[in-house]
Every structure is written in structure tokens, then in C-alpha cells.
């Protein structure tokens, strides 16, 4: 198996929704909004096993100083193969010199993001208004 990355926003909605649903992300239940969000992202990096979408990450950014990573997900059948790290490395090529790189990690993902160089932000707390169900 050879995984290849793409940096375009040409996405098949069915494959995107299947990836989100496989990970039990509630945004997969809002296909129109999800596809619009990805299309309006600063960057989208996708991972492919031939023509099958197996991973996706997106960024929101001012293009100069700050970048936020709202989504990074890999199909559960492909977990542990380094695909998430490949996506984060691709983002580092683009945003590595930025003043702030920000994300919110659920407890299961903290260890992964630490391996990618992230650490808990000094005296901060994640806050949100969330209308999902996971």
C-alpha cells in the first residue's frame, strides 16, 4: 500500500462524508456545511490509498501569523500507519514558521499531537459552543 497526499480542494462529497462517519464525527451529518467549510479552508491536505480517501486535514489561517487546524482525521482502518503524521508534516511545510499554530485535541489525540511538536498552551483553556453529538 502506498499512501499519497494531495493539496487540492477537489473532493468527492460521498468519500468525505464516509470518512467523517467512519470516525463518528457529527459534521458528517451536515454534508452541505462540511463541504462548504472545506472549500473555504485556507488549505486542505488529503491522503489517498489509490483512489480511496483515507485521511483529511484542513486549516484556517490569516496567511501570515496564525493558523488553526480544525480537522484531522484518518479512516479507522488506516490508523497507526503514520498518515496523520504525514498530513501534519505537509502542514508544517506551509505553516512551520508561523507565530502560532493552534488546535483543540480530544484526550485520545493528545499523545499524537505531542509527537507532532504541539504542547499545552500556557494557562489556556479550550472553550466552545458546540452543536454536535460526539
Automatic annotation (TrEMBL):
Residues 3-132 form the N-acetyltransferase domain. Transmembrane segments: none annotated. Signal peptide: none annotated. Gene3D superfamilies: 3.40.630.30. It comes from the Bacteria. Keywords: Acyltransferase, Transferase. Pfam families: Acetyltransf_7. InterPro entries: Acyl_CoA_acyltransferase (IPR016181), GNAT_dom (IPR000182), NSI-like (IPR045039). PANTHER family: ACYL-COA N-ACYLTRANSFERASE (PTHR43626), GCN5-RELATED N-ACETYLTRANSFERASE 2, CHLOROPLASTIC (PTHR43626:SF4). This is GNAT family N-acetyltransferase.
Amino acid at each position: 500500500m502506498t499512501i499519497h497526499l494531495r493539496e487540492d480542494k477537489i473532493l468527492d462529497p460521498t468519500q468525505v462524508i464516509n470518512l467523517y462517519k467512519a470516525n463518528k464525527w457529527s459534521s458528517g451529518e451536515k454534508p452541505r456545511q462540511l463541504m462548504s467549510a472545506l472549500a473555504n479552508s485556507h488549505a486542505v491536505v488529503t491522503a489517498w490509498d489509490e483512489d480511496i480517501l483515507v485521511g483529511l486535514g484542513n486549516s484556517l489561517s490569516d496567511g501570515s501569523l496564525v493558523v488553526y487546524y480544525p480537522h484531522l482525521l484518518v479512516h479507522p482502518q488506516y490508523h497507526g500507519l503514520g498518515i496523520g503524521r504525514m498530513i501534519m508534516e505537509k502542514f508544517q511545510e506551509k505553516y512551520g514558521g508561523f507565530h502560532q499554530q493552534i488546535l483543540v485535541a480530544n484526550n485520545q489525540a493528545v499523545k499524537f499531537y505531542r509527537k507532532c511538536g504541539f504542547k499545552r498552551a500556557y494557562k489556556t483553556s479550550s472553550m466552545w459552543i458546540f452543536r454536535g453529538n460526539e
